[in-house]
Amino acid sequence: NAGVTQTPKFQVLKTGQSMTLQCAQDMNHEYMSWYRQDPGMGLRLIHYSVGAGITDQGEVPNGYNVSRSTTEDFPLRLLSAAPSQTSVYFCASSYSAKGSGGYTFGSGTRLTVV
Amino acid sequence: KNEVEQSPQNLTAQEGEFITINCSYSVGISALHWLQQHPGGGIVSLFMLSSGKKKHGRLIATINIQEKHSSLHITASHPRDSAVYICAVGLDNDMRFGAGTRLTVKP
Questions:
Q1: Nearest to A97 among B42, B47, B93 (CB)
Q2: What would the pLDDT profile of A19-77 be if each residue is shown by its tens digit?
């Protein structure tokens, strides 16, 4: 089925470990983005990309890196995990940054840093 | 102060009732989105609005650009409408989200 595939669904990390959250879409969307969702705070934008080779920071980028080498893939890297990065992470894509046609979200990754 | 404020935070309704969820924002926007987050956590786009009103089935979304306010209405609510409804505003390439409204519809 067409959509956004996010892996893994669950992950437990130790403080200081690094990992990559994968996000792939097969809808030829130009815009891709990563969000974190924390209780009581709503979704917050971490990084976004408006096309292959182009990335930029969102509201809460510290501690995360991204790259966009292809239209389909937009991985999120945690460089040195901290307990403050415990959260649920969502990847989303759309035809444009404005969200034309709506956003398609991945199923989320629940990350716990101990 | 959050750039996007939603009200109410929680809403309980009886099946069949008319539901209204409100969203106010304090910044200039390129578009406003309504999202639905299911109890299992999945998020679905419901509407994108730049002006006026949109309708999809029992859901109606309106926006008043001058007043910086949007409403999401659900007619003839049903238990399957129980979810968290999230308002989000587009700022060029960035997005800001409300904290969400948790709706519970009882049979």
A1: B93
A2: 999 999 999 999 999 999 998 788 999 999 999 999 999 989 999 999 999 999 999 99
pLDDT digits (tens, 9 = 90+) for B37-95: 998 889 999 999 989 999 999 999 999 999 999 999 999 999 999 999 999 998 877 78
**Alpha-carbon gap, residue A70 to A51, rounded angstroms:** 8
Q: Which residues contact A88 (CB under 8 A, 6 or more apart)?
A: A36, A37, A38, A108, A109, A110, A111, B41
Q: Does the N-terminal peptide bond of residue A8 adopt cis geometry, omega within 30 degrees of 0?
A: yes
What letter represents residue B73's amino acid? H
Give the residue from chain B lying closest to A56, CA to CA: B93
The predicted pLDDT at position A98 comes to: 74
Query: How many whole angstroms from its chain centre is CA A91?
Result: 4
Q: Which two tokens stand for residue B93?
A: 């390439």
A97 near B CB under 8 A: yes
Q: How far is it, in rounded angstroms, from Cα B85 to Cα A74?
A: 26
Residue to mutate among A43, A48, A55, with most B CBs inside 10 A, is A43
d(CA A57, CA A3): 24
Cα distance between residue A114 and residue B32, in whole Å: 37
